[in-house]
Amino acid sequence: MPEDAGIERLIRSDLVNFGSYSPSTSPETLLGKIGVPLENIIKLDANENPYGCSPRVNQALATYPALNIYPDSGQAELRKLLQQYTGVGAQHIVASAGSDQLIDLLLRLFVESGDEVIDCIPTFAMFRFYIDLCRGIPVEVPRDESFAVRVDAVKAAITDKTKLILLATPNNPTGTIVPKKDILEILDIGLPVVVDEAYYEFTGQTVAPLVGRYKNLMVLRTFSKWAGLAGLRIGYGLFPAKIADYLLRIKEPYCVNVAALVAVRESLKDIDYLMSNVKKIIAERERLFGKLQKLKWLKPFPSQANFILCSMLNGRARELQQKLENRGILVRYFDQHLLRDSIRISVGKPEDSDTLIKALQEIGEEI
Ligand SMILES: Cc1ncc(COP(=O)(O)O)c(C=O)c1O
C-alpha cells in the first residue's frame, strides 16, 4: 500500500482528528526564526525551575555505573524514599514517568468508553487530553470568576456515569488553590477524587495525610517543579493501598528509569537547598506580580504556584505571545472560554523578570 493511502480507515475513528496537547516551545525549534541566540532565550512557558536541579544529581549521574540494568519494576527503594519524604506508607505510593503518566493510568483504570469525568475548567489541559484519549466524556464544570471550584456545581454535575473527579491545587494555569474544606466536601460525595498537587512545595498545603483514611482520595505529586527535574520525568501518587496495587499492575514495568531514581535519591538528600530555591521563586513571584500590576493593560491574578496568569485588558494574547517570542521570551497564551486573551508567565530568575517587564513596557506602548 502506498504511504498514507486510506490509513485513516484503520486508525481509531475518534483519534483521526485528535487535537494534540500544545506543548511548550523547545528553544532549538526557534533557531533561524528569531534573531535571538539560543543561549539568550528566556523560557517562561512551562513552569520549569529556573535554578535547575540539585548539583548532587548531576554529580551522581556522571558516575552512575549501571545504565545497562533495568530499574526495579516494583519501585521498592523509590517508594521507601517517597514514604520518608511524604510521611505516607510505601504501600500507598506509586511512581511514574512524570505525574502526567499517573493521570493517564488513573483514567485507564477507572474510565471506560462513555464514562464521565468531572473537570473543573479552566485547568490543566492534560486532564482533558487523557479523558479524550480513553474515550471518556469530559463533564466541564466552569470555575467562578475568581477561578475557585464551585462545589455545588460539581455536585450537580454528578450522574450515574461519573467515574472520576479531577482537581488541581494549586490549579494550572490559574494559580488558585482548592481549600481543604471544599476537597473534603467533594470527597464526601464518595466518588474517586484525584487531587493534583504538582505545585505542593510552593504552598505547603496538602491533603496527603488523609490518604488511606479516605478510600476515594488520590494525590498526585511531581519532582518537575520544586526539584527541577522536569526533563527526567519523575512523578508519584499517593493512593488507597488497593488502588496503588492496581496501578502497579497496569503500569509499564520500567516506567521510572534509573537516572530518575538516582535523581530522587540525591534530591531528597538536598531538600534544604531545593526548598531555598522554591523560596526564591516565591519571593520573585511576588515581586513580578507587583510589576505586572503596574502595567495598565494587563491584569495579573494572585498565584500560589510558580507562575502568574494575566488577562489582557487590551490587545490579543496570541499577538503578545508572538511579540515576546520574537524578543526571545517564551510565555504561554490562552484564548478560550474563561481565559480570553490570557497569558501565563512562569516565574524565572529576577533578571528574567526584569527583561520581561522591559519588553512588556515597550510592547504596551504599541498596543
Ligand atoms: C497541574 C499539573 N499537573 C501535572 C503536571 C505534569 O507534571 P509532570 O512533569 O510530573 O508530568 C503539570 C505540569 O505542568 C501540572 O501543571
Give an account of the 3D structure:
The protein has 367 residues and is α/β, with parallel strands linked by helices. The chain is built from eleven helices and 13 strands. It has helices at residues 55-62, 76-86, 99-110, 125-133, 151-157, 180-187, 241-250, 258-267, 271-293, 317-326, 350-366, and strands at residues 42-43, 93-96, 116-119, 137-140, 162-168, 193-196, 217-222, 235-238, 298-300, 307-312, 329-330, 332-336, 339-346. Helix 3 (99-110) packs parallel to helix 4. The termini are far apart.
Structural class: alpha/beta
Flag low-confidence runs: none
Q: How many helical stretches?
A: 11
Which range best describes the helical content: under 10%, 10-25%, 25-40%, 40-55%, 55-70% or over 70%?
A: 25-40%
Please give the order of strands in the largest beta sheet: 2-8-7-6-5-3-4
Shape: globular
Bound molecules: pyridoxal-5'-phosphate
Mean pLDDT: 95
**Beta-strand content bin:** 15-25%
Gap from first CA to last CA: 53 Å
Oligomer: single chain
Largest sheet: 7 strands, mixed
- Integer-rounded radius of gyration: 21 Å
What string, H for helix and E for strand, traces the elements in order?
EHHEHEHEHEHEEEHHHEEHEEEH
Tally of strands: 13
